[in-house]
Amino acid sequence: MLIESLNNLKIARRDLLINAMKGGGALVLGFNLPGSALFAADSSAALPGARKLDPARLDTWIAINKKGDVTAYWGKMDMGQGVDTAISQMVAEELDVKIEKVTVLFGDTYVMTDQGGASGSSGVSNSGVALREAAAEARQVLLEKASTLMNLPVDKLTVIDGVIQEQGNSTHTLSYGDIIGDKLFNVPLEWNGEIGNELELKSRAKLKDPANYKVVGTSVGRKDITGKIIPKTRFTVHSRVPGMLHGRMIRPPSAGATIVSVDKDSIAHIPGVQVVVEKDFIGVVAPKEWDAIRASRALKVNWDETKSGFPTTSEKLHDYIRKATADKSEVPENIGDVDAALASNKKPMEVEYEWPFQSHARMAASVGLADVKVESGGTVWTDSQKFYDTAICTAKMLGLKAEGEQIPVRSIWGPGPGSYGRSDSADGVLDAVVLSKAVGAPVRVQWMRNEGIAWDPKGPASVINMRAAIGEDGKVSAWHFHLKGFSRQDVSSREHSPSETLAGQLLGHTRKRNWTMSEPANSYGFANKRYSWDAIKPLRDMGSPLRTSHFRDPYGAEIHFAVESFVDEMAYSTGMDPVAFRLQYLTEQRDIDVIKAVADLAQWQPRTAARKQKNANGMLVGTGISYAQRNASVNAVIAEVEVNPQTGRVWVKRFFVGSDYGLIINPFTLDRTIEGNLIQGTSRTLFEEVKFDEKTVHSVDWATYPIVEVADAPEEVKIVKINRPELGPKGAGEPVTRVVPAAIANAVFDATGIRFRKAPLTAARVKAALDAAV
Amino acid sequence: MANQFNINVDGVDYQIEAEPDMPLLYALTNDLEHKGPKFGCGLAQCGACTVIHEGVAIRSCVTPVSAVTGKVRTLDGIGTTENPHPLQKAFIQSEAGQCQYCINGWIMTSLAFLEQNPKRTDAEIRDALAGLKCRCGTHMAILRAVRSAADEMAG
Ligand code: FES
Ligand code: FES
Fold first, then answer.
1. How far is the CA of A448 from the centre of ligand 1 (A)?
2. What CA–CA distances, in Å, run from A294 to A87, A247, A441, B17, B24?
3. Which of A376, A485, A691, B16 has CA atoms 20 to 30 A from the CA of A556?
4. In ligand 2, which atom is closest to the CA atom of B102?
């Protein structure tokens, strides 16, 4: 229904809105927005009427219909963590309406203003906070209008469930629907001039005191979930338009191989197939999906492999990183004199931690649909979490205007498999753009499983060197964190330019190298401290299956695996309990509080050395703690593990979490988000490593890139959340991930007495170490 | 050569024109426009495409349409918004799944299992669900949902 109705739209809403504004404004056009487009939509929700996509206008953000239904227009999207539901709570709260009355619409670049896509757990903390201001402003405007209509000063009015009434006189009322229903507010709203994550709005009204919250802080059920489980929701994978062809890509046998010739006769037996070859980009399209798949498998391509491949392998990767020339180095933090403290220390500690390339390995590989023309642009359907950038990139691919209000490409977002950063989600849709442009018809591209693991942008591999000086008094006098590895934005986390996509790179678009690294986030008050990094070149310059980009909490897991494992090593080397050691050095109260909370929850048993305990089943058991800040959130995790001495298998039996996300909007859904991070973090700590040789990547499916299985799920997860309403909501989408690896490694140390400094802690690796230790 | 195949899905007969080796999944998603079964791997490694064929949970991504001889049940057919299946109800209440892309596999595999094994232990549930993938890592909520649905189904 949705896609067809969208296709029938002759005029973009943006034009309609702008025309309406020119024509004097307040008239509602009755423009029937295919609200369903906006995958959050509930058809009973208010239609927007005429609104202009100007962030400095209230109508851009909030609309109210005659029934008093509120629609909020949100410029990010929800990846299944209930962010739209949380935002509807914030809007309902600030407007004083029932939660059922609020629908948050999102996912169309022609309907909502760009608030940055899914990014850095900023859904609630940035974009939700902006919409809260818009809601507060709407309430204020409505009160002012009511004041005139009811002939009463604003301070003699109250709002109960969307009905304004005279204080103490429940018969003298006006509803929001009566005042504004289906009309524009037509008022400005203070905007900070930024687009994307940094976009801020400010209401003239004072925000509600958290002490009076009714909806925020309650566990409203996720609004999207029913349509996905009683399956009516159209995912991007279901996108269809009339005349659509199916596309499949053909990948080279080795990384960077180039096309010499293509034998089109090899697929002559498959009906209706077209082959699209442009430089090193090659794909097929066919009317039937199965025919496209068969053709992509049967097509004979002659590749030149003389310059393909990698300079190293996954086995030798970390030595390669150690020896590689640093192309860019930085010292983002340098307090005191680390070198002097280390030089004067009798027994300085120095160890290294290794992390492999990891794949986003989404539940399904990239899918996208493009219906575009060089002359006029068109529409793309994508599940990319940066779908505003998809529109910009598509326009650039077509050689069209890609800036300002009137980008001639509309990008429509739909749900897809979880994406966890700059995954392959951005790449398939740009393949579709190239194919659609070439064949002059709408093309839907579905990547196959191997592409979704072997060809997605990878989380960067690294070696982290940790050094510390501990004096004779047992006090840490210096520590040095040094990260060496690949940039976390070898391709940008935003696909705003063809050169940042696989299709663009295969077509020969080049770009300047982008060096982005990261550093630890904690509040240890060690006297002398240095954070530094060396970034090295990617293993192939362009079009590489090992190009790197953001993978859920970019560099967070890698860095805090090293840092928090090393903190344990320092604690034991001074004969201190790891919890007591952390508490001794932490300087920020929120950090201290989460550690104390989780230690209580888990009934932490202090120890000053690995306990190497065995349970009744002969399993080695232990517990370990880890903690980290992320932006303004802070989490501590205790893992309780069982290590099988026969097989080396590590099982996290229990997780305990102490968390502080400022103001909690929705406790139940927040717990689910924390659990998801714990399990995905476990998967990355114990199982995940991209394998490659000099030729190409060999992690191509779930057999060659194993992830967590249901047998690995813990028996129990316990969470204690510290609510801090005074701080406002802080990001929760991904901050726990970075805390998990060291919690597990520290627990394995407690169980076995062996320090694992190389991730993942696979059964084979653990078994080998156990055998070697005997 | 494309052939004609008769398949019965959720109680309705359909005639599909397809190559004999085309997996059932493509008939379900393209010809029938079902929203439940999804393409995850095409390799029988993840379960996103699971349907029930004659009482057995099968991976429709590797089942040729020509091999479908019996009745097929899909997630699209087991409940409605007004009258959801106990498993659907439990998954919604537990907020099991984040992106929900994998959920078809977990529900349909659980359904086939629980219909045969109404009395089950937690360990048996984990065994029955082995091999299914959930990249969002929502296994805790999924297990909670399956346990609670199992209780309801057992009465
Ligand atoms: S899609 Fe069939 S098992 Fe993965
Ligand atoms: S909920 Fe996303 S893969 Fe399972």
1. 11
2. 45, 11, 20, 16, 15
3. A691
4. 4
CATH topology for B3-76 is: Ubiquitin-like (UB roll) (3.10.20)
Paired tokens of A770:
């156990």
Cβ A374 vs Cβ A433: under 8 Å? no
Beta bridge mates, A382: A368, A413
Q: What is the pLDDT of residues B115-146, one digit of tens each?
A: 999 889 999 999 999 999 999 999 999 999 99
Q: Nearest to residue A518, comparing CAs of A638, A675, A438, A631?
A: A631
- The rounded distance, in Å, linking the Cα atoms of A432 and A105 is 26
pLDDT band at B1 (very low <50, low <70, confident <90, very high): low
Beta bridge partners of A283: A249, A276
Query: Any idea what the Cα angle at residue A129 is, between residues A124 and A132, rounded to 5°?
Result: 120
Q: What's the count of helices (H) and strands (E) in chain A, helices before strands?
A: 19, 29
What is the C-alpha to C-alpha distance for residues A561 and A346, in angstroms, rounded to an integer?
Answer: 26
Q: Helix H segments across A251-298?
A: 289-298
Q: Token match 């106990």: residue?
A: B86
Give B155's strand partners.
none
A446 vs B: CB within 8 A? yes
Distance between CA atoms of residues B38 and A234, nearest Å: 11
A556-591 pLDDT tens trace: 999 999 999 999 999 999 999 999 999 999 999 999
Residue A52: its pLDDT value, please?
54
Q: 């590749």: which residue's tokens? A: A303
- What is the C-alpha to C-alpha distance for residues A255 and A455, in angstroms, rounded to an integer? 10
Please indicate whether the domains covering B3-76 and B86-154 agree at the CATH topology level.
no
The ipTM of this complex is 0.98
The first and second tokens of residue A238, run together, are 């279901």
- CATH of span B86-154: 1.10.150.120
User: Quick check: CB of B38 below 6 Å from ligand 1?
Assistant: no
Q: Whose CA is nearest to atom 4 of ligand 2?
A: B134
pTM of the model: 0.95
B137 Cα nearest atom in ligand 2: 4
Cα A418 to ligand 2 centroid, rounded to whole Å: 6
Q: Sort strands A377-382 and A367-373 into parallel, antiparallel or unpaired.
A: antiparallel
pLDDT, tens digit (0-9, with 9 covering 90-100), for B16-42? 999 999 999 999 999 999 999 999 999
Q: What is the pLDDT of residues B47-101, one digit of tens each?
A: 999 999 999 999 999 999 999 999 999 999 999 999 999 999 999 999 999 999 9
The reply to whether residue B133 touches residue A79, judged by beta carbons under 8 angstroms, is: no
A308 phi/psi in degrees, rounded to 5: -90, 175
How remote is the C-alpha of A372 from its chain's centroid? 28
Q: In chain B, where are the structural domains located?
A: 3-76, 86-154
At which residue do the structure tokens 């094994």 appear?
A: B117
CA A364–ligand 2 middle distance (angstroms): 10
User: Is residue B14 within 8 Å of B6, Cβ to Cβ?
Assistant: yes
Contact (CB, 8 A) for B134 and B142: yes
Q: Which residues of chain A have pLDDT under 70?
A: 1-52
* Interchain proximity B136–A709, CB inside 8 Å: no
* pLDDT at residue number A122: 87
